[in-house]
Amino acid sequence: MPSSVPSFAELLGQCERSAVHLELRDSYAPTDRFEAWKRGERINWEDRPSWWHPYDQLIADTVSRGVAIRRARVVSEPVSEYIRWEHYVTHANVTAGEQVRWLPRRRATNIPLPGNDFWLFDGALLRVHHFSGDGVVVEDEITADPETVKLCSTAFEAVWERAIPHHLYEI
C-alpha cells in the first residue's frame, strides 16, 4: 500500500524559511556505516566524493535556497556507542549546511518534550517519526494540528537555546 506521507525531499523542497529536527533517542537501528565504524573503519573527510550522499546534497541545495536547517539532539551521558558514532558523522551534516547542537538529557528535565522525534517545516507542518523499540522507523505521520505544532516548536526552541553547538560538544 503506497504511503500518503510526502517524502522528506518533497517536504524540504516546499520549505521556504526553516526546517528543524529534534532527536530524542540514544540509538537508532544500526546501519552498515555504523557497523563499519564499530569495526574501526573511519571516513576520509578529505575525500568528499567517498562520503557525500544524496541527503547531504539535498541539505546543501535547500540551505543554498535560504532555508535555515537546525538539528538538536537530546542525549544521555555518558553517551551510547551509537551517539558517539553519530557525533563523528555529524561532520557531514555540518558540511552540508545544517546547524547542529547537543543537549545533555540532564539539562532537559524541565522542558516539556514531545514523545517522538520530528521535523518541523516553516513552523507549520510536522513530520513525526514513530520508531519500534529497537530504533526502526515504523511510520511517519504528517500533522499541522496547531497545538501539536506549538508544543513541538516550543520544545525545539527550548532545547536549542540550552544545547551546545556541535563544534563545542565533546563526548
Summary tags:
7-stranded mixed β-sheet; 23% strand; globular; 171 residues; 7 strands; alpha/beta; 6 helices
Folded structure, characterized:
- The protein is an alpha/beta fold.
- It contains six helices and seven strands, in the order H-E-H-H-H-E-H-E-E-E-E-H-E.
- Strand 2, helix 5 and strand 3 form a beta-alpha-beta unit.
- The longest helix has 17 residues.
Strand content: 15-25%
Q: How many β-strands, per DSSP?
A: 7
Widest sheet: strand order? 6-5-4-1-2-3-7
Instruction: Identify the overall geometry.
Output: globular
Task: Give unreliable regions as ranges.
Answer: none
Major β-sheet profile: 7 strands, mixed
What do the pLDDT scores average to?
A: 96
From the N-terminal CA to the C-terminal CA, the straight-line distance is 42 Å
Structural class of the helices, strands and pairings? Answer: alpha/beta
Domain DUF6879: 7-169
InterPro entries: DUF6879 (IPR049244)
Protein name: DUF6879 domain-containing protein
Pfam families: DUF6879
Present the secondary structure layout.
Blueprint: H1 8-14, E1 18-23, H2 32-38, H3 48-51, H4 54-64, E2 68-75, H5 81-96, E3 99-104, E4 118-121, E5 125-131, E6 137-143, H6 146-162, E7 164-165
Parallel strand pairs: 1-2, 2-3
Antiparallel strand pairs: 1-4, 3-7, 4-5, 5-6
Pfam families: DUF6879
Organism: Streptomyces stramineus
Domain DUF6879: 7-169
